[in-house]
Amino acid sequence: MNSINVDDLTLGEVIGEGNNGKVYKAKWHTKDVAVKKIDYYPQNSTEVKELSRANHENIVFLHGTAISNNTLYLVMELVDGGSLEALIYSENPKYEIAHVINWALQIAKGIEYMHKKRLIHRDLKPYHILLCDRHRHLKICEFTYARFLSESMTNNIGTAAYMAPEVFNDQEYTEKCDVYSFAITLWEMLSQKKPYGKNNLQIYEAVLNGERPSLDDIKFPCPQEIKQLLTNCWSADPNERYSMTDIIDVLNKYPIVVEQLSL
């Protein structure tokens, strides 16, 4: 990872906002990049540590960091296709079940990579998934809440609609919280609806009462095994949920020719 001189960066328009700072389209010398600006950053920033260790085609790449006046600049690859969330809720989304399976498989591979390194994302959702290559490929971003599995985690962390019951309950939790978030994200791709559509307190009550998004809201002809994947992965019992490797095995049963999927 490079140590970058802040004077070599030219910030442009804001293209996104993470949990702890805005993201700008920028130039690093002549290279187009994305720069996340974090004010008053902690010296042991988890996000920097985890991004610097990540080297996977489905995780946004960190070129390096710059520090100036107690402000941290994360200089990352520019992923130019917008967020998955923006596509889902665009005026006339034209994607089909093949696109969904392709995206889901890539998300699962990226999170599997993290889990094999004993890392948990803890805030997986469509807004934190960036599209590129005419929407055929994607990159997972936003590692503010990422933690090592060896750490004891009971904090109520994440975005309510995607949070597993054990996270809501302040119980100790594992990488299976990402599996739950994956299931909600997959359902959202299939339904083109916001999960629950309620305020945080109502979501909390619904999740703990066992309510889950309705499979009847799925808009595409969907294999029964994919529906079963959803119900398994958002089980209230983390031990009953698939691993990311299990999820990849299921999705690989539906071969997709990625080159034919541009939007």
TrEMBL record:
UniProtKB keywords: ATP-binding, Kinase, Nucleotide-binding, Serine/threonine-protein kinase, Transferase
Cell membrane found in the keyword field: no
The Protein kinase domain, residue ranges: 9-257
MF GO annotations: ATP binding; MAP kinase kinase kinase activity
Any one Gene Ontology BP term: immune response
Family matches, as InterPro entries: Kinase-like_dom_sf (IPR011009), Prot_kinase_dom (IPR000719), Protein_kinase_ATP_BS (IPR017441), Ser-Thr/Tyr_kinase_cat_dom (IPR001245)
Residues that bind ATP: 37
Annotated PANTHER family: MITOGEN-ACTIVATED PROTEIN KINASE KINASE KINASE 7 (PTHR46716)
Family: Belongs to the protein kinase superfamily. STE Ser/Thr protein kinase family. MAP kinase kinase kinase subfamily.
Protein name as annotated: Mitogen-activated protein kinase kinase kinase 7-like
Organism: Drosophila hydei (Fruit fly)
Lineage: Eukaryota, Metazoa, Ecdysozoa, Arthropoda, Hexapoda
Recorded name of the encoding gene: LOC111595678
